[in-house]
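__Protein archive entry__

___
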Amino acid sequence: MNSVSDAVERHYWKAVTFLVILILAGSGFWGVRRFAPAVFLGKPDLIAVPNEERPHVQTTEILAPNTPELLNINTASAEELQILPNIGTQMAQRIVDYRTQHGTFASVDALQNVKGIGAKTLEKLRPFVDAK
């Protein structure tokens, strides 16, 4: 009976060790994904970063060199538009087609004229785009 309890105890500790390693690996993966998302995004040069320091009104002041630039919806390609939240391949193409047919966007609010972009989507896009 002693050998059976020794075997059970060995397997118990192997299972505990496996679970501890699994938890540590999972938390490490979560940490990297949470605090360094660029590792999982593929093209780090096309990551949209909201610019909270810059007001949404047009100003003529000189921006600090470390301030990320906003994506210009009047000049961005369909590929560049796809980096924005809630903008897929079809929506990016709709934006480009609308711009081709109707001319440049006068403001970011004019994006609501594109089929599929409503008030909620516009508010998600606003920190990332500009219509200069």
